[in-house]
Design brief:
Elements lengths: L7 E4 L5 H12 L3 E5 L4 H15 L3 E4 L6 H15 L4 E4 L14 H29 L2 E6 L12 H20 L5 E8 L5 H14 L3 H9 L11 H12 L10 E4 L7
Parallel strand pairs: 1-2, 1-4, 2-3, 4-5, 5-6, 6-7
Helix pairs in contact: 1-2, 1-8, 3-4, 4-5, 6-7
């Protein structure tokens, strides 16, 4: 079993979906957690309290907009203040927009790059000094199969996720001689609120039913024809945070049902 007792983990986009599954996995292993994301204040407080009581760890919450530089600085400061450091950083927050390049709104491009890529750069920059001081750290970036291959209508998302893979490799090389690792996980389609929103958007873009989007568009590239389970992805992130994975850094790890094996 992976033991992360007294480690402090900051996970962006962790009030639902993949990020929440990761929060559960790391908390179960003993890590103290800083949640981040949007949602109903009462529901988030109930979630925070439940994690704390279930796993007997400290759990904080930041409503920081990861597209905002000052908000990220404050979130890291609060994580250090409340949890004692930033030992684990999981850059998971992401948004999506689907449209052909010639119709792609500039503001959507900028927002996707800011949230899916620039926030990971800024948080890595902010967290690394604490990891260096502690002589231990784990950065896990959540990219996508779209960090390795492309699909039409997703120019900003594909560009951001490819960029996240490149950022991961650079940080890994810079920290290669330290006890800090940086890896990137590239999942296929995971059934999350983000994907459910994509189903509706793709149906509109392709002028087909939502069922047809799932079968013929989303899972068309995923040979096993199954959505990835958030808890399976969370277990992979947990492993990357363990001492057993200390020799893994700069790795691009797929969990995509065979998608990128094509």
């Amino acid at each position: 079993m992976t033991h992360l007792k007294d480690k402090a983990a900051l996970i962006t986009g962790s009030t639902s979906g993949i990020g929440l599954a990761i929060a559960h996995a790391l908390a179960k292993a003993g890590a103290n957690i800083m949640l981040n994301g949007f949602g109903d204040a009462k529901e988030i407080e109930a979630l925070r309290s439940s994690l704390e009581k279930t796993y007997h760890v400290s759990v904080g919450y930041s409503a920081a907009d990861v597209a905002n530089k000052e908000a990220l600085e404050t979130m890291v400061e609060n994580t250090v203040k409340e949890l004692g450091g930033v030992d684990i950083l999981v850059n998971n927050a992401g948004i999506q927009y689907v449209a052909p390049v010639i119709e792609f709104p500039d503001e959507k491009w900028e927002a996707i790059l800011a949230i899916n890529l620039t926030s990971a750069f800024r948080l890595s920059k902010l967290a690394l000094p604490y990891m260096i001081k502690a002589d231990w750290g784990r950065i896990v970036n959540i990219a996508s199969a779209h960090g390795i291959v492309a699909s039409p209508f997703k120019s900003a998302y594909v560009a951001a996720k490819h960029g996240l893979v490149g950022l991961t490799k650079t940080v890994a090389l810079e920290q290669a001689e330290s006890n800090i690792t940086c890896n990137v996980v590239c999942p296929g389609y995971v059934k999350t609120p983000l994907v459910e929103k994509q189903i509706a958007e793709q149906a509109k873009a392709h002028k087909i039913s939502e069922d047809a989007v799932v079968r013929d568009v989303l899972l068309q590239s995923q040979p096993n024809k199954k959505f990835i389970k958030p808890e399976n992805l969370a277990d992979l992130v947990l492993f990357l945070c363990s001492d057993s994975a200390e020799g893994m850094t700069g790795e691009v790890i797929s969990m995509d049902g065979g998608w990128t094996a094509h």
